[in-house]
Amino acid sequence: MLYYLLYHVLQKYFSPLNVFRYITVRTAVASLTALFLCLVLGPWMTRKLRAMQIGQYIREEGPESHQSKAGTPTMGGILIVIAIIVPTVLWANLTNVYVWIALFATAIFAAIGFLDDYNKVVRKRSLGLTGRTKLLLQILTSFGVGVVLLIMRAGGTYSSELIMPFFKNVRPDLVIQPLLSNPYLVPVAILPFLAFLVLVIVGSSNAVNLTDGLDGLAIGCVVIAGGAFTVLTYVTSHARFADYLDIQHMPAVGELTIFCGSIVGAAIGFLWYNAHPAEMFMGDVGSLALGGALGTVAVMIKQEILLLFVGGVFVLEAISVILQVASFKLTGKRIFKMAPIHHHFELIGWSESKIIVRFWIVAIVFALFALTTLKLR
Questions:
Q1: Which of 169, 195, 225, 316 has the greatest number of C-beta atoms within 10 Å?
Q2: Domain extents for the chain?
């Protein structure tokens, strides 16, 4: 909106406004806009949530130290989502379909999280929506993203090839091309692509959700992952950088850089209130939306595999839960004192602040490694 007004309308009367043609400038402005929105609206949001008695319900089986956090305002993720969507709408080119896909996925995942949080608060139950219902809604949303991308693939504006880190010439096509000629086999042909896409987006959403267990832990890691994806999105859209790094050049995804910059700004702004001791929690409305947004960006810029490294901490948290559940069901024994793994470190004596900062350090190392792999091919 502001991009169109300043560049397409007013720039002809005031030439310095030509600066808004550059993605880098609009990304920086979008990040600052998101940060500003969070810092300005944060106190109001906290007061509003307290007045509505929307406080966090703490699971009894959780660490004992967490019981003191009961009643802390939750559902602050609404603020994060607003601070992502508004700057993107203001500063991105709204004729770009990739921007709308990202906004759609973020909004729907936020709505799923909102329903879950609302159920927890109203019914005073820590479980919220049933796992089956939540997963089904996430799958349907991801499936919708996949269908749109397949339509774009048919139009030649999207590729279903999978880019493999470390390998230049290994790019398997997730759509079985020979089967597309037979109308009856089209569902079989596109099934691998849709299944993989759903796995990436749903997995990313739930991994961030599992990481959101300590003050500032998940949102700090989102700042780092969002920053990495801002770089990845920009170089993917830049002809020279894409050629130099030997990655697929996708000019149209450049506008997603503004979206990623908004994620970074919103996450930094929310961290101001979520830092230990937290004044406000993001809730599922925030964690599911952020994870879904990162996963959606990853599939659109063709860096699904690299998401494993960019979001390394999220992956480790998810794996710890999977291993814990599998071990207990198969052997009756637990691998960790508690899962996700950040709770394990709490129970062995690490302070909450130490766990958070050390996990941030690990997240930075993962993100730097991910960016390094662009040239290690």
A1: 225
A2: 2-372
